[in-house]
Amino acid sequence: MNILIAADSFKGSCSARQVTDTIERAAKNVLPDVTVTKIPVADGGEGTVDALIAAMHGTKVTVPIHDPLGRPITAEYGLLPDGSAVIETAAASGLTLLKPEERDALHASTFGTGELIRHALEHGVKKFILGLGGSATTDGGAGLARALGISFLDADGRELEPGGVHLSELASISTDGLLKEAAGCEFVVACDVKNHLCGALGAAAVFGPQKGADEKQIKILDEALVHYAAILKDKLHCDAADTDGSGAAGGLLCGILPYFPVTICSGIDLVLDLTDFDEHVRHADLVVTGEGRIDFQSALGKVPVGVASRAKKIRNVPVIAIAGAKGEGCETLYSFGIDAIFDTVPGVMPLEDVMRQAEANLEKTAENVFRLFQLGRSR
Question: Who is most buried in 58, 86, 327, 336, counting CB within 10 A?
Answer without folding.
Answer: 86
